[in-house]
Design brief:
This protein is an all-alpha fold. The protein is built from eleven helices and no strands.
Length: 224
């Protein structure tokens, strides 16, 4: 016996799948610190490092999904002090990353007429894309908003196996993230050659990324 796809999904405790998918696409495509970081890593260090950073994003999102399923989302909504700790810690980390990017950009501007090969050597040696992307993802205001306020709305409260509903929603979210980040990674590697040839362009892009991260930090600190 076969069932329509929508019926099968509703049988798994997922409600209003078309609305969830539409919102998911919009939220995934909305620029955030995690996607920007993956793009920057791919542009500077290539496909492999880009996917290493992307893996950190996916692990961070999985942690947020699990916490949401465990009821931490409701706890954050109901506890202003706890939510404040999370958001200010995240804002502080994003600010620290932004300052690092702006310092790197300043160094690029000062040495833009030097040989290009050595420009990223110290940063590349110290950077750990997976760990940094994981922390960025955990404190990403877009992800927090998605999993705290949006994700849980599509689980049928009367369904007996709600963990399965969260798995279905989470798998769809991770699939959308995989496709989007993969597109960014391969786009970033195409930018890499231009960045290596023109250090001024690379410095400008890094400056813009640092400014955006500062904007993300401000946005998170003002979240309610």
């Amino acid at each position: 016996m076969s069932y329509p796809r929508a019926t099968l999904v509703s049988m798994l405790g997922v409600t209003d799948l078309p609305t969830y998918l539409a919102g998911l696409v919009l939220i995934v495509l909305l620029p955030g610190p995690n996607s920007l970081y993956v793009l920057s890593v791919a542009a500077r260090r290539g496909v492999r490092a880009g996917y290493t950073a992307a893996a950190g994003v996916w692990c961070g999102d999985t942690v947020l999904m699990t916490l949401s399923a465990a009821g931490v989302a409701s706890l954050l909504q109901g506890n202003a002090v706890l939510f404040g700790i999370v958001k200010y810690a995240g804002a502080g980390y994003l600010t620290w990353l932004a300052i690092g990017m702006l310092r790197t950009a300043w160094g690029m501007w000062r040495t833009r007429r030097d040989k290009a090969d050595a420009q990223d050597a110290p940063a590349a040696a110290d950077e750990r894309p997976f760990r940094r992307a994981l922390v960025v993802s955990l404190f990403n205001p877009k992800a927090i908003l998605f999993f705290v306020a949006f994700f849980v709305q599509f689980v049928d409260p009367g369904y007996a196996y709600q963990a399965l509903s969260f798995v279905v929603l989470g798998a769809l979210a991770q699939l959308a993230s995989f496709l989007y980040l993969s597109a960014l990674i391969f786009s970033g590697t195409k930018l890499a050659a231009a960045f290596r040839r023109r250090k001024g362009l690379s410095a400008g892009a890094t400056s813009a990324a640092g400014a955006l991260f500062l904007g993300f930090a401000v946005k998170l600190s003002l979240a309610s």
